[in-house]
Structures
1.
Amino acid sequence: MEGDKPMKRVIISVAGTVLLLVGVALLVLPGPGLLLVLAGLITLASEFPALERYVGPVRTRAMKAAEDSVASPVRIAGSVTAGLLLVAAGVVWGTVRWLPWSGWSAGTSLILSGFILWGLLIWSYRRVQAQRAARA
């Protein structure tokens, strides 16, 4: 269907932009920023080929950061703790009304960030373990 093409482009553009912006925010906040920046760039590059040149360098840095995040038990514990703190902060922001920007919209985004962090941590760990097994 020819009419679906512009709508698909808009949906991909919005999804890619959201991933990219959340990733950029997570570069300074706790979370897997580079991996989300990479996901946003890959999504946007599917519709805007000029962005393809940025995917390679970001992929290299994101994969290195993913490997570094699971390089030691201390880093893994720190990431798990950060996820727990995000989920706990989300529950607090959702239930305590006197906090700035309190409510479940802020709370849900914090909880979701914690789950995303855990998901990417698991993905990073499995990826690194698979690479180690392939080398052995």
2.
Amino acid sequence: MIVTLIVVCEVGFWVLLAAGLAVRYLLKMARTGLALLLCEPLLEVLLLVVTAIDLKNGAEPDWRHGLAALYIGYTVGHGHRTVKWLDGHAAHRLGGAPPPVGPPRYGMARARHEGAVWLGSVTAAAVASGLLLLAARYVGDDGNTESLRGWISVAWRAAGIHGLIALSYAIWPKKAPEKGPEKDSGTAPGTVPAKASAVPARDPEHVPDLLVGRAGEDEEQVR
């Protein structure tokens, strides 16, 4: 039952997300679309309540309850980033907004971005650990809580691996590709080279002399 509910919550997450964005941008009903998007956390609350009821009814704690806690933690840590990313693309394609700015790709800016994403994984591990500890306490010492506590190490192991990947971007920053050297055209950048004139240029200082010479020739022809 728990696994089925996890699948239902995952499908419901994407259905509510698609419906909320469609209502918000296609039907131009911003408040209704926002209300649909805000209903998504209710799916995690429903999963949490059903998991607690299952344990209350005497179900043996196993991997299904641990998986439910990890799913809730992941949604808390990374769900808002997924919604924000999809909302930006929907606003661009459906609402006429400018294209969303993507994450940085190179240098320490990329390292800081990866660090922020890793903090989401830390949040997910912390939320999952808290839920698993509450579940273990709820079951009590009489029940088998080893499986629940084992999922805590799984959550933090995943966060640790993600942390090493994020740290690698700071130790070995990804460099931007180098641009090829531009050919020297002899002109300033952004200017169009002037075409050579077929008429030879004259020195302005000799223009009066030329005019005087032409005037003398005309006077002699008149005489």
3.
Amino acid sequence: MTERSEWTSSTTTPVRPPHAAVEEYAATQDAIARCRQYRKEHGLYGVVDPALGRIMLEIGAVGAVVMPATLGERVRDLMTARGQQCSGPIIAHPRSDRWTFLTGPTDNSYQDMTLFADLFRVCASVALPGSHIVLPSPADEHSGYRAWIALPQHDYRPEFGEVVGATRACAGSAAKGSAAG
């Protein structure tokens, strides 16, 4: 009989401390407030995933191009040098050392295999319509998991084609530079 009670007690689910639930609730409330701000001020119509407390944005009306941070810096600099407004929005993912450029709507060029290959070679990609990206929440920013490189400016987002074109140009110049060296 004792064996049964020992077995049962060893398989029970540990109880979370009460403060953990309070912290999760506070983080979710902060994410909801931030999500409202994104909607009202920037036209970024995300939703808060209640299980994760993350602000999820569906790709469609907003596009996204994801790339390594070093390439992202070159893309931002090239767009600025060309006189294109590139003040955001750009999200950093410090742990994976990647950047996400939010753009205007994605066109059908994401189906172009040549584009796919060009981006694949430099570890970049286009977020597909219907997929989701995560916008920075206060909890993400405090943990260093996700942060803004360039905050959204009202509802401005660069055109999808401008970001893809700059990414291809920077990828091409990096390839030529490494071939010459």
